[in-house]
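ok so I'm stuck.
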Amino acid sequence: MRGARPERALEESIERDGIVRRGERVVVACSGGADSVALTAALHALAKPMELDLSIAHVNHGLRRSAWQDECIALGLAATFGMRLDAVTLAPESRDEAALRAERYAALQSVAQRRGAGVIVTAHHAEDQSETVLLALFRGAGPGGIGGMRGRRPLGDGIDLARPLLRASAARLRAYCHARGLPYAVDPTNADVELRRNAVREALDALRPLFPGLDEAVARAAELAGDELDATARAQLRRRVRDELAGDAGLRDVDFLHVEAAVRALESGASGTFLMKAGVALRIAGGTIEGITKG
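replied:
not stuck anymore, here's the structure
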């Protein structure tokens, strides 16, 4: 279709999911990789309709010779989009992944405080979620580990950490960059299988051809488990829909996406008829379930 923008789907999903909220002052963590470049560009596209106040933060751990290239990408984005940028260089004493992550978040939190932002947004995506869930299971974690990374959680000092891309694949984010002609850096340490996360990544790469939709399924399971653990309003709505369907034995295994469409209608107070299975629909009026229609 002439004038169509297929990349707009990513922006729409961020706006629809509500993990980043209208009117917020946001610090976007941009490493310079494809994931964070796509996130920065998508949020910039949404800044006006969602009334977002955006700035970029780039954290350089100083561990790689090519790190200056990553910073150049972040600087270029800031110039292209007219966004403020804070570049922070750290001098870590250890290469331990957990220690580096803690230092990175502390730096981002400091930037957010300085900018008066209430949320830091990172570009963790579906493959990252799969790796996180598996690593947690390998440590013997319980339900909290299965919940993986939350879409949004408090980070401290009145600042939240938001991850609006947990359902998006890395390929989709690269495609977004390509569609918009955006350059990005490639991290050479991603190939180092001595790092536990990279070893899990390599194993998952071998499994994906055998299990299409693997990352989408793990991301969905993690979201469901996390919402249940946190007793979110969305988890309660899912139970309402499932309870309504449970009265009919043939409706106990309705696809997640159909349930989720009904849940979003209930959240927004919408009305309509939502297909659950062939010939079976759920009627919703003004955010209230009216019943099941067959035929």
